[in-house]
Specification:
elongated; membrane; transmembrane helix; 26 helices; three-stranded antiparallel β-sheet; K_trans_N
Length: 767
């Protein structure tokens, strides 16, 4: 038995390693496309600005190589691969994942969706972080609201820069790849070809987004792997043929000589050298698509060695050639042997497209996270794959990115300005990650503050130097990410502020339970057949829109459901923890409250599936006797609002069988509750289930209401700033927030609801 068990364990380990290697191979196309194409423009960007000159002594090229090697090693390998990848939020990575992780461990946050009793499923299933002794940092974040605002703004700044990177990376990558045409054309013909070809490729890239990456995903990994193999082999050839001793330049001594000789010019050239680590943040943000070990395996065994060999090979070639007409002619393609230049050009363009695809998909994912946490206007999110998690398409954002990308490409028309812009966006995101990561070390990992300070000072100092070098190029293109991030940051802050104010208005103006009880079982109005679904942001109390509705209309549905869809600050919510069902008032009222919880990376159900899951959850709540030991008060003072976690709804079937043999139906009375309508709804009860007449009557009424149909009552709140508000608040609420509200999508679950089933009720909210 011991031998067999050991063989089984060995087989499982072998299978596990095989799956990890497959994931590592797949990650090449999704994660490393951007980083793999950086050799196309790093040396060119470093020398193109005129800050440094390529001299006979080779101090400049050796210094740049040394800086590239140590930057790639310290920032990407040490910081991201070995340290930051460990800070995952239930398997997810990225700036917002770090923010969510900190807020959940500290117990302080500004997101309305993270407030309220019992809204964190982690706490219910025992997965919440254990309590730790209060520290000064933790206490400050919990008590000082201005620090919470600063932390949120800091996270949103990093997010807005990621979106800006989604505009700049496709432009830089594709333009740099196509620039290889210069060496194959004479008489400056390339200036008439380069820009149109780049624009055509970019338009095609964005136009194909709606097909989804899964349709062409099988091409991504082979293309990037072939590209890395290609640049690695060319690098080895150049090292052996031109300068076998170039490896000596990896010594930090050459960095010192470089900065000593070039001084201010060398410092300003760091903005171009910085581009060697582009894609590092995308590697962390795409953590949810793969595993830590697969990303580490791919980087350490394939990506890192290939990039180092490519940079060394370019330096070896350039060190033996000093007859370049201009500094901006120093680049990747001059080091490629002429006989294979055209094939390499084709592979480079394909690799640039793959790299651009990765950052575009990453931008979609970041915006989806922001939407889920009420930090970005609601947009249409299309899930392009039913099997691969995270592959989404957002039409509005896609076309905005395309227009901005084309504007940058046509406006600058050279790699220098676009690279300056991309460099500032990349380093800003890295600084945000460093600061948030230092908080994670103290607050989430419970390490000594000395380790957090060491991490912050070491990597922060390196990134601060690069940031200063990038910022000094503000007038040479670096202003673009600043403007883009300001626009996106303004949109996100105003939307979050307006949403928070609307939530506060709803809480302050909700109707008390006593008001409802005084109406009597009929609620003082005529009850008509069907289910009325009222959307509300509240998890307790009666929304003001309900009283506004019954005051103006004399009738309502026989079954009323107050629906609250919440996005919690977790990546995923398990299906058995998604639905919470409670009763409002007495049983005769037929009023229910349903809270549906989604993680910020969860896929929300379409309308038909959502309706079925909703009705089956209410039916199971009725059958199980309203509440169980998993129930808890939802924050109100009323004993009528007990919510229960419905792990599995009561299944039911819908068919169009005509009224037929009642005798066969009566034989299954204990198992099925059948309506006599032409469209039958049948709840399937567990074996030997015993239900009393009161429960049976309530299930029968729910059945009849479901057969009649479901109506969606949507609240339309018109936000207005109170008189006497400041000018900034009036502009933010009355103009910007209202404009965003009018041009944003409705709730995700109601996107496919027929217009004839939707009723919109308007209210003016003075905030």
């Amino acid at each position: 038995m011991d031998v067999e068990s050991s063989r089984g364990a060995a087989g499982s380990r072998k299978k596990s390693w095989r799956s990890e290697l497959v994931l590592a191979y797949q990650s090449l196309g999704v994660v490393y496309g951007d980083m793999a194409t950086s050799p196309l423009y790093v040396y060119k960007s470093a020398f193109a600005g005129g800050d440094i000159e390529h001299s006979e002594g080779n101090e400049e090229i050796y210094g740049v190589l040394s800086l590239v090697f140590w930057t790639l090693t310290l920032i990407t390998l040490l910081k991201y691969v070995l340290l930051v990848l460990r800070a995952d939020d239930d398997g997810e990575g990225g700036t917002f994942a770090l923010y969510s992780l900190i807020c959940r461990h500290v117990g302080a946050g500004l997101l309305p969706s993270s407030a309220g009793a019992g809204e964190d499923p982690m706490e219910q299933r025992g997965g919440a972080p254990p309590p730790v002794p209060a520290s000064s940092v933790r206490g400050a974040l919990q008590q000082r609201r201005e620090l919470q605002w600063f932390l949120l703004l800091f996270a949103l700044l990093g997010t807005s820069m990621v979106i800006g990177d989604g505009v700049l990376t496709p432009a830089v990558s594709v333009f740099s790849a196509v620039s290889g045409l210069k060496l194959s054309m004479v008489n400056e013909q390339h200036q008439y070809v380069l820009l149109p070809v780049t624009c055509v490729i970019l338009v095609g890239l964005f136009a194909l987004q709606h097909y989804g990456t899964h349709r062409v995903g099988f091409l991504f990994a082979p293309i990037v792997f072939l590209w890395l193999l290609c640049i690695g082999v060319i690098g080895v050839y150049n090292i052996i043929y031109w300068n076998p001793h170039v490896y000596k330049a990896l010594s930090p001594y050459y960095m010192y000589r470089f900065l000593q000789k070039t001084q201010v010019g060398g410092w300003m050239s760091l903005g171009g050298i910085l581009l060697c680590v582009t894609g590092s943040e995308a590697m962390y943000a795409d953590l949810g698509h793969f595993s830590q070990s697969s990303i580490k395996i791919a980087f350490t065994t394939v990506v890192y060695p290939s990039l180092i060999l490519a940079y060394m090979g370019q330096a070896a070639y350039i060190s033996q050639h000093h007859s370049f007409e201009k500094n901006h002619h120093i680049g990747f393609y001059v080091s490629v042997p002429e006989k294979i230049r055209w094939p390499v050009l084709g592979i480079a363009i394909l690799a640039a497209v793959v790299g651009s695809q990765a950052i575009i998909t990453g931008t979609f994912s970041v915006i989806k996270q922001c939407c889920a946490l009420n930090c970005f206007p609601r947009v249409k999110i299309v899930h392009t794959s039913s099997t691969v998690h995270g592959q989404i398409y957002i039409p509005e954002i896609n076309w905005i990115l395309m227009v901005l990308c084309l504007a940058v490409t046509i406006g600058f028309r050279d790699t220098k300005h676009m690279a300056n812009a991309q460099g500032l966006a990349v380093i800003t995101v890295m600084i945000v990650t460093t600061c948030l990561m230092s908080l994670v070390i103290v607050l989430c990992w419970n390490k000594n503050v000395v380790f957090a300070l060491a991490f912050l000072l070491f990597f922060g100092a390196i990134e601060a130097i690069y940031f200063s070098a990038s910022l000094v190029k503000f007038h040479e293109g670096a202003w673009v990410p600043v403007v883009l991030s300001f626009i996106f940051l303004t949109v996100m802050c105003v939307w979050h502020y307006g949403t928070a104010k609307k939530y506060e208005f709803d809480v302050e103006n909700k109707v008390s339970i006593s008001w409802l009880l005084n109406l009597g079982p009929s609620l003082g109005i005529v009850r008509v057949r069907g289910i009325g679904l009222i959307h509300t942001e509240l998890v307790s109390g009666i929304p003001a829109i309900f009283s506004h509705f019954v005051t103006n209309l004399p009738a309502f549905h026989q079954v009323l459901v107050f629906l609250c869809v919440k996005s919690v600050s977790l990546p995923h919510v398990q299906p058995e923890e998604r639905f919470l069902v409670g009763r409002i008032g007495l049983k005769q009222y037929r009023l229910y409250r349903v809270v549906v919880r989604y993680g910020y990376r969860d896929v929300q159900q379409d309308s038909l599936e959502f309706e079925k899951a909703l009705v089956s959850s209410i039916a199971e709540f009725i059958r199980s006797g309203d509440s169980d030991q998993n129930g808890y008060l939802d924050g109100s003072d009323s004993p009528y609002e007990m919510l229960s976690v419905i792990s599995k709804g009561l299944p039911f079937q819908e068919d169009a069988e005509p009224d037929g043999s009642e005798s066969s139906t009566h034989k299954e009375t204990n198992r099925k509750l059948v309506s006599s309508r032409s469209k039958r709804v049948r709840f399937v009860l567990p074996e030997n289930a015993q239900i009393n007449s009161e429960v049976r009557s309530e299930l029968q009424e729910l059945t009849e209401a479901r057969e009649t149909g479901m109506s969606f009552i949507m609240g339309r709140s018109y936000m207005k700033a109170k008189s006497g508000s400041s000018m900034i608040k009036r502009i933010a609420i009355n103009f910007i927030y209202e404009f965003l509200t009018r041009n944003s999508r409705g709730p995700a679950y109601a996107a496919n609801v027929p217009q004839v089933s939707t009723l919109e009720v308007g209210m003016v909210c003075q905030v």
